[in-house]
Design brief:
The protein is an alpha+beta fold. The strands form two sheets. Strands 1, 2, 3, 7, 8, 9, 10, 11 and 12 form a nine-stranded mixed sheet that branches. A three-stranded antiparallel sheet has the order 4-5-6, with no helix packed on it. The longest helix is centred in the N-terminal third of the chain and has 20 residues. Helix 6 links the parallel strand 1 and strand 2. Helices cover about 30% and strands about 20% of the residues. The chain contains nine helices and twelve strands. It starts with 5 loop residues before the first helix and ends with a strand. The chain folds into two domains: about 100 residues, no CATH class; about 220 residues, no CATH class. InterPro entries: Cro/C1-type_HTH, Lambda_DNA-bd_dom_sf. This is Helix-turn-helix transcriptional regulator. One of its GO terms (molecular function) is DNA binding.
Length: about 350
């Protein structure tokens, strides 16, 4: 008999835990879904090959580590601090087993990575056009000059150059455009959209983020002296993550990385890399283009959000001697907030 494919092996393991863990007690999908605060169809999908995120597997491990989980009138996941030493050991073994099955079942595109779009449809990278007062005053920014360079009027040029080359290299069969937000056509809006830069200047970022359910609001910077921040509102609490300046120099920016379905065409995606300053945007871009970090950051996204249509990460971006350091999302201090559609 052939061995199970990894996702099916995990699915069978999860079902066995629910049905066979404790002889004489068969827990229904509905009961277990209620324990986890999930829907019955979602739990059913895990038992049919969809890989749950690590947090869900941790809940499975804690719940099935002790029969005390089902001894009360209401089944519950005990707090880890309530477990005995023996129960904690069982939990750790079980969690390692489940995570191992999940890892072996991860569906990745070898050699392609996050920025690969397998459907080969058009990809449009969108940046803001600099306000007229921000455009450098040189002959090269004068359209009447023979040496006119249009790109001088583009915001987030470093991020655009970094990402455009990378996306083209991993999508050789796709057409990859770049546009300023004010120049988008009706057809551009329905492609795979990649939006660079924040809501102050990039009107496409503002329009798309307003249509999402992510509980994050990017505060504008109406004055040059403002630093702004990302405001998160959850469970009645408001938290603001803001950049850090020292003696007027930026030493830490904050950025949002968002991936979801394109609200103008649900068969395409939208990705947002948006910093409070340009360095934050570049850091969010480099998180998944930098050859030293992209694999581990893709692994983080895979573990946290596999199977989710929409998710968001608020990330710290360090700036050292005016140089942007690529954030490593496997380090908890670099992930300030995360959200996914499953946990809304």
């Amino acid at each position: 008999m052939p061995a199970d494919r990894p996702p099916q092996a995990l699915a069978r393991r999860l079902r066995a835990l629910r049905v066979e863990r404790w002889p004489g007690l068969s827990i229904t999908q509905g009961q277990l879904a209620a324990v986890f605060g999930a829907s019955t169809p979602l739990l059913s999908s895990w038992e049919n090959g969809k890989v749950p995120p690590p947090a869900r597997l941790a809940a499975y491990a804690t719940f099935f580590a002790t029969k005390r989980s089902v001894e009360g009138k209401t089944y519950r996941v005990l707090d880890e601090s309530e477990l005995t030493a023996a129960e904690t050991e069982v939990r750790e073994r079980l969690l390692a087993d489940l995570l191992g099955l999940a890892e072996s079942g991860a569906s990745v595109n070898p050699g392609r990575g996050f920025w690969y779009f397998p459907d080969s449809h058009i990809i449009t990278i969108v940046v803001a056009k600099l306000p007229a007062e921000e455009v450098p005053r040189t002959p090269f920014t004068d359209p009447a000059n023979p040496d006119y360079v249009e790109l001088y009027s583009y915001a987030d040029l470093d991020s655009l150059i970094e990402l455009h080359g990378h996306i083209r290299s991993v999508n050789p069969r796709s057409v990859v455009h770049f546009r300023t937000a004010d120049a988008l056509s009706e057809d551009d809006y329905t492609t795979h959209l990649v939006l660079l830069g924040g809501v102050d200047w990039n009107i496409a970022t503002r329009a798309v983020i307003d249509q999402t359910e992510v509980p994050v609001n990017q505060e504008g910077r109406p004055n040059v002296s403002d630093v702004g921040g990302f405001e998160v509102v959850e469970d009645g609490r408001t938290t603001v993550f803001s950049p850090v300046l020292a003696d007027g120099e930026l030493v830490q920016d904050v950025a949002q990385f968002y991936r979801g379905l394109n609200p103008y065409n649900r068969k395409r995606t939208v990705t947002i890399c948006s910093g409070m300053f340009g360095r934050g945007t570049l850091g969010a871009v480099r998180a998944l283009t930098d050859s030293k970090f992209r694999d581990r950051n893709e692994g983080y996204l895979k573990h946290r959000f596999d199977g989710q249509d929409a998710y968001s990460v608020i990330t710290r971006v360090s700036v050292v001697n005016r140089k942007v350091l690529t954030p490593d999302w496997t380090l908890s201090e670099n992930v300030l907030h995360e959200w996914s559609e499953e946990h809304r």
